[in-house]
Amino acid sequence: MEIRPMAGLLNRKNVRGMGAAAAVALILLLCAFYDLTHDDGFLLSTALGGLLLINFRKKKYLQAQGEKLQKEHDELRRQNETAQKRFQHIFDHAGDALFFIDPTDGSLLQVNPQGERMLGYSQEEIRRQSLSVLFPGRQMRRYLRLVRRVLRDGYGEEPALQLRRNDGEKLIGAVHARLGQLGEHQIVHGVIRDVTRFRQAENTLRRKNRELVLLNEIARNIAGRSGLDELLQTILEDVIAVFEAHGGGIFLVRNECTAMQLAAHRNINSDVLADIRNAPPGLGLAGRVAVSGHPQGSADVQTDLRLRSHAIRNAGWRGFQAIPLTAQEQTVGVLFLFNHDRRVLNRDERSLLMAIGHQVGTAIQGAELFEALKWQNRLTKASNRELE
């Protein structure tokens, strides 16, 4: 019997969602409607079964693919969560200060807890804080230049960037920064390491080396001196250079500390020279040193009542330090330094000056004894000639 008019009922589209019971019912319906023979029914059942099998396998395949994709999605999500936790752990427990910077204006977007401890600010306070507060003076310009350098080159570093803590203390940070992405946004990220102690130790070592060089140079000059005036001038210029002073001078104490003579000077104008060339002991800062044998200093002589010279005030001297030149517990001279800005020497600098004072004082005493012996020798020779 011809069954083609009903063949459309058996295509894959029609049997795609058909269950087994529905398929059997369809076969019985077709057999009854077309009065099919047993063989025709068998062929029809076989065809329908094949279509159902194909549909079943396709559903199983799609189900397996869906489960595979879900597992992959779950694994990727788990890996992402693990990576985020790992990053957050590193960020929170890093020994150095980590930071994220907005490259458009240099503002700090986020810092880790170590950064909060280092700067003394909370996360919110740092985000609200002005860059001029965190980076005092010229340091802000150096910081912004670093950010621009990272934007241009992808990497930048600043070995000694000064920052101001919440308590006002300043620290020196070594900064290393790179350009990166945070989601869809471009950021600058990096690390700040507090190297304040290292820099201080480095500066101390450099200063000690400079002091040793100065003391050795003074000793060499003393050993090879050709005259006291030349020796004092050379020593004074070396001391001014090392202490970065604007000028200075050396007084010699005469007549058992009843007079002071300016034996060497540098960068002192004529008005001041005329006023202090023969300064009396006991008056003014240098005169007090000559009498007491103790150092005298002033951060700003413009407001210091101990200053007696109006010429010095008119010359714009401000920072001042005077130390005794001593030999065998006697003051044989006074060395002084001045600056045109406010300045106070620290303890190490004063200690170095005092060591120089002992060294130069001994040289002065030795030179004066040598001159006295030469004078005595000339007198002896003159007396011998008269006796002859």
TrEMBL record:
Boundaries of every PAC domain copy: 157-207
CDD domains: PAS
Keywords, comma-separated and alphabetical: Coiled coil
Record has Kinase as a keyword: no
PAS domain boundaries: 83-154
Coiled coil: 59-86
Classification via InterPro entries: Biofilm_reg_signaling, GAF, GAF-like_dom_sf, PAS, PAS-assoc_C, PAS-like_dom_sf
Domain of life where this protein originates: Bacteria
PANTHER family: BIOFILM ARCHITECTURE MAINTENANCE PROTEIN MBAA, DIGUANYLATE CYCLASE DGCP
Protein name: PAS domain S-box protein
The species this protein was found in: Geoalkalibacter subterraneus
